[in-house]
Specification:
With about 350 residues, this protein is an alpha/beta fold. The protein folds into two domains: about 5-155 and about 295-345, Medium-chain alcohol dehydrogenases, catalytic domain (Quinone Oxidoreductase, Chain A, domain 1), CATH 3.90.180; about 155-295, NAD(P)-binding Rossmann-like Domain (Rossmann fold), CATH 3.40.50. It has eleven helices and 17 strands. Strands 3, 4, 5, 8, 9, 16 and 17 form a seven-stranded mixed sheet that branches. A six-stranded parallel sheet has the order 12-11-10-13-14-15, sandwiched between helices. A two-stranded antiparallel ribbon has the order 1-2. Helix 4 packs across helix 5, helix 4 crosses helix 10 and helix 7 (about 230-235) crosses helix 8. The chain is globular. It binds nicotinamide-adenine-dinucleotide (NAD) and zinc ion. Zinc ion (ZN) binds near residues 44, 46 and 154. Its cofactor is Zn(2+).
Length: about 350
């Protein structure tokens, strides 16, 4: 396969600075890396946090964002044995990890202190050609719809792992806070596929009908409901057994500690800037609730999450636009106006 010397990318030089759609050099894979010709990339709210510099972890600068890239392997380093040219592969958030620390050794590679992150510390998928450590790159089965699978690479893997972290049983209630967004719309479907009863929380009629169409049994509109806590507890007859927090609202996250059922589990996934999760200690103890953090997923979680997609059990509601339109997508995302996920076509 012939690989060009230059390519289109969206790159920024300072956090919050101009998002420039321009020609940059095609990266050369290191011995442990593959070069993926990215066809489509999902846009995750994390990419917006990275551009704005929201978190207490510095990004690489200048930076090409993106970590839901799906494409074709067009070159590989001399040490790579698990991918062939022509295979389908994905750039995910965890680009690489040390594989030697105590966390990597137990399969918690995302928690590696030396993790290399696509679209954060390593140029990501908002370009036509991106490098990925072959150990962590996602394997995508031949024949897979690349635009459809892109959001699975972060949003899908993350919510699938978060649902496992909640340790719920079929028939129990799970609340998805932020159910109409990119992660939330997939969380609803994974939860339904796992036999859970889903209550979605988000704002607006469009998100309400999306959540219902994906199998959500109930929907609470936080923009219209006076007492969100009481309403959720009423619908679920005492509170959901688990909550997956994928909203970017600190208030919504703290609220979930109140409406969760006695003995229930609150899973933290969404990462609003400077947020603190507040849980009143008395109720926390007497109800014996648990708050757990969940951070993307490991290689096995990735393979399992993609398998749900391949089997037709989950499908991200996507809207495809050109790579050059990333700045517009961020504007909509900032307003909470995106229903499902935007996916960028890197050829436009
Ligand atoms: P998104 O913008 O697509 O979705 C967020 C949704 O939350 C929107 O639909 C919005 O309307 C809704 N929302 C806003 N306020 C709310 C409230 N008070 N109650 C309920 N819903 C509310 O974002 P996304 O791409 O799905 O990402 C969500 C968050 O998850 C981001 O902070 C992102 O950085 C984070 N994230 C974390 C991980 C992880 O591993 N922990 C992985 C990926 C993304
Ligand atoms: Zn993401």
């Amino acid at each position: 396969m012939s690989v060009p010397k230059t390519q289109k990318a969206v790159i920024f030089e300072t956090n919050g600075g101009p998002l420039m759609y321009k020609d940059i050099p095609v990266p050369v894979p290191k011995p442990n890396e593959i070069l993926i010709n990215v066809k489509y990339s999902g846009v995750c709210h994390t990419d917006l946090h990275a551009w704005k510099g929201d978190w207490p972890l510095a990004t690489k600068l200048p930076l090409v964002g993106g970590h839901e890239g799906a494409g074709v392997v067009v070159a590989k380093g001399s040490n790579v044995t698990n991918f062939e040219i022509g295979d389908l592969a994905g750039n995910k958030w965890l680009n690489g990890s040390c594989m030697g620390c105590e966390y990597c050794q137990q399969g918690a590679e995302p928690n590696c202190p030396d993790a290399d992150l696509s679209g954060y510390t390593h140029d990501g998928s908002f370009q036509q050609y991106a490098t990925a450590d072959a150990v962590q790159a996602a394997k995508i089965p031949k024949g897979t719809d690349l635009a459809g699978v892109a959001p699975i690479l972060c949003a899908g893997v993350t919510v699938y792992k978060a649902l496992k972290t909640a340790e719920l049983r079929p028939g129990q209630w799970v609340a998805i806070s932020g159910a109409g967004g990119g992660l939330g719309s997939l969380a609803v479907q994974y939860a339904v596929a796992m036999g859970l009863r889903v209550l979605g929380i988000d704002g607006g009629d469009e998100k309400a009908s999306l959540v219902k169409s994906l199998g959500g049994e109930a929907f609470v509109d936080f923009t219209k409901t006076k007492d969100v806590v009481a309403e959720i507890q009423k619908i679920t007859n005492g509170g959901p057994h688990g909550v997956i927090n994928v909203s970017v609202s600190p208030a919504a996250i703290s609220q979930s500690c109140q409406y969760v059922r006695t003995l229930g589990k609150v899973v933290l996934v969404g990462l609003p800037a400077d947020a603190v999760c507040e849980s009143p200690v008395f109720e926390h103890v007497v109800k014996s609730i648990q708050i757990r953090g969940s951070y993307v997923g490991n290689r096995q979680d990735t393979a399992e999450a993609i398998d749900f997609f391949t089997r037709g059990l989950v499908k991200s509601p996507i809207k495809i636009v050109g790579l050059s339109e990333l700045a517009e997508v961020y504007k909509l995302m900032e307003k909470g106006a995106i229903v499902g996920r935007y996916v960028l076509d890197t050829s436009k």
